[in-house]
Amino acid sequence: MIMVEHTQTPNDIRGNSPRAIGRAISMVEKGGPDAEAILTGLDPDRIAQALIIGITGPPGAGKSTLVNQLIAAFRKQHQKVGVIAVDPSSPITGGALLGDRIRMMQHATDDNVIVRSMATRGRLGGLCAAAGGVVRVMAGAGCNPVIIETVGVGQSEMDIIRLADLTALVLAPGQGDDIQAMKAGLLEVADLLVINKSDRPGADALALSLETEIRRRPESPVEILHTEAVTGKGIMELVSAISRIDLRNRKNGELTRRRRDNLVREVMDWSLEMLRPQLAADISKMPPEILANPATAARNLLLRWHPNREDLP
Ligand SMILES: Nc1nc2c(ncn2[C@@H]2O[C@H](COP(=O)(O)OP(=O)(O)O)[C@@H](O)[C@H]2O)c(=O)[nH]1
Ligand SMILES: [Mg+2]
To answer: Which ligand 1 atom sits closest to the C-alpha of 233?
Structure first.
């Protein structure tokens, strides 16, 4: 019965206590039956209602500064805000993590702002799976929006950003970041393109080159906005654009489609995570003559979970 002490009832999370929410998030990050009990107890209406905003872009573009401004803007509208900062650096060096924490410190005493950092490295895979749970705990606790900040490099960061209902790609002049963003396929996932540091030289040139690129891809429309995150210039326009896109996506069924795709991906993630240790154990016991034919070995292994031979590729 010791478990009961650790198990959150859904009511704990629905209340306003950041400590209760923080505990629930930690348990969901850890995974296991307690985590699943928390997630199953969440209010589905709140989850459906909450807007999940993805903020991505290269390091130094001003994402955290912008997120800070967004927090302030949504707090003015009396919204409770959740923030997940995904840090790409090692938890040992943790430089950016600390930076993000300090930058969001002005909201540290606000009970209606829940900030959580998650590291991509140094964990046993499945960041996306865990992050999906954290997003839902925040939404279930009444956070709306939930903002996910992540550096737009690497596969796990791209997977994370797909948890969002809509995504803003943040770029700044003077780093050649526009080229890199296109190479990384970031433009494809973006609903909004934010040119931050508009006070800096080169902002107009950056906008121009991006407009040209966007016109070449009429199939995926992207809106361009200009911001100055340090002063807050352009933030209200960004908030309106976010609301406008959200409303449109809710009306035309795009949000339902995206959420379904995301959930399908998450279930896939979890299935693979859960299968992996068992598969690894079974494979390690295989004699050399079975290992020698990997495809046949894999097929025979999978037949234990999937006894219908015809369905296997
Ligand atoms: N000049 C200028 N600097 C900015 C602006 N926005 C952010 N910065 C600065 O850019 C640096 C990186 O910002 P940060 O938010 O940490 O970027 P992130 O790595 O994308 O999260 C910080 O020193 C910010 O103060 C802006 O609009 N104009
Ligand atoms: Mg940052």
So the answer is: 27
